[in-house]
Amino acid sequence: EYKPEKTDNLDIGLRLRSGMFELYPTVFFSKHRNLRTPITPGWRDPDDPSQPLMYRGKPVSYQTFVGKAKGYGFELGANLIFSENITFFFNPTYNKLKYDGDIVSAGTRYKTDGKQVVDVPEWMFTSGLIVNYKGFEITPVIRFIGKRYGDLAHEERIPSYFVADLKCAYNIKKAGPIENLRVALEFYNLFDKKYIVSPDYYPGAPFTVYGSVAFNF
């Protein structure tokens, strides 16, 4: 079953600008084969065959590459330019990615036809402000990931979450032999939100501070 995942994608997009507005709408279609999929084969405990084989309180499962899916959706890059110093952006994504038929693995059939693919949210968006003033740049950002499912039966619901970030920078075009100096400080997950990033139930990154310096010479 271990064959590489294959995906065919078709994207159709536009770029529109009128006055204060910039829009970058894109519609997309996709077809997937050999999806990376969590399988729960229903193995029995060798010491007690009447019970399922458990690991950390859950039936044993593993990842394999099996199954097909078809999808469609849209992305919208939208900017509202209030002035040369202030820009508001809102970038939503809708992704309907469903299994194309039931999945059969190691002789077991999983009723997946028509269900949303594991760990794929239907809705996501990123939104925020970009504020520039005399070389200073401040960008507060909100990220949203919609609900997902962690298993093929859609019994394990992974809740949606919001995360707030803040990016600050100072830009200098020329300082002696140095050009385009940029000093940045970025704060991720400002409110230390607890969330899940994958169906393997890895926790999302906690409050994190990241600094950087970049320049040309």
Protein model, in words:
This protein is mainly beta. Helices cover 0% and strands 63% of the residues. The strands form 6 sheets. Strands 1, 2, 3, 10, 11, 14, 15, 18, 19 and 20 form a 10-stranded antiparallel β-sheet that branches. Strands 4-9 form a two-stranded antiparallel ribbon. A two-stranded antiparallel sheet has the order 5-6. The protein is elongated, with a radius of gyration of 23 Å.
Low-confidence stretches: none
Radius of gyration: 23 Å
Oligomer: single chain
Class by SSE composition: mainly beta
Distance between the termini: 52 Å
Fraction of residues in β-strands: over 45%
Count every beta strand, where a strand is a DSSP E run of 2 or more residues. Answer: 20
What order do the helices and strands follow?
A: EEEEEEEEEEEEEEEEEEEE
Helix content: under 10%
In one word, what is the shape? Answer: elongated
The biggest sheet amounts to: 10 strands, antiparallel
Number of helices: 0
Query: Average pLDDT, to the nearest integer?
Result: 91
